[in-house]
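Q: Fold this one first, please.
A: Sequence and structure below.
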Amino acid sequence: MTGRLSNLSAIAPDVIVSATLQLETPGAGFTEITRQAADFVARAQAGDGVLFVFLRHTSASLTIQENADPDVQRDLVTALDRLAPEDVPWVHDVEGPDDMPAHVKAMLNGVSLHIPVRGGALALGTWQGLYLVEHRRRPHSREVVLQFVGSKR
């Protein structure tokens, strides 16, 4: 396999900016947060660096996925449901049959992301978006911690 590395770019981080994004989810499914993350980066007056995104919950998750065709999100929800179905005799079911499957799905996707920031913009691919994935059927209030580390514009 061959590849070509771009020129190296070095910065001395001179700022750490943090905020918490409060979201109300409608229930199971994808909630795009790309716009809120980009707004945070702009308000932080970010130059070059990295955006860390952390979800403070164990029954929802974060992912970077296609943002062009909503069928992708529907199929991903179906895939996660197949990997962690509700109709299994889970031991942990205190909050209902979707409780333990939600924890499994969150473990599979993860609760943190990091996105490069270049010239004050998220360095996402053309069809990529940031999503909070709610794994519970009921609506929930979720907190996402955003933190930029890098240079100022």
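Q: Good. Now the second chain.
A: Here it is, same layout.
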Amino acid sequence: MAARTKARKRALDLLFEAEQRGVDAADLLRERLAKPVTEHPLAELTADLVVGVSERRSEIDELITTYSQGWSLQRMPAVDRAIIRLGAFEVLYSPDVPENVAISEWVSMATELSTDDSPRFVNGLLARLAEVKPTLA
């Protein structure tokens, strides 16, 4: 697994864990940076993704709610919420990552970690966000 893919997976793990525990993802990140639970330090990309999603969470959630036809955030599986939030952050706010690469990475994560229907849903929603990105101010 490539280093960037591993960093994305660790960001996903942190967002998912934070939601399950009912804690702020940025606080959990700070905790893990201060007291790592593995021998491998968190990658800078992991931290950037978690902080980015945390800082823009309400904006990201509003866009997800607007463009996820027929699916409320609460109705989505928890892992899909985390994948879509991270994917939306990369698609919308990471100029160094091509949109198609970000979408592909997060669809791959959904394929590996979620339901059979999740990859198609993640792909459609992230592609729609990429499509409307120029209209967002």
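Q: Anything worth noting on the second one?
A: The helical segments are 3-21, 25-34, 44-55, 57-67, 78-93, 99-113, 118-132.
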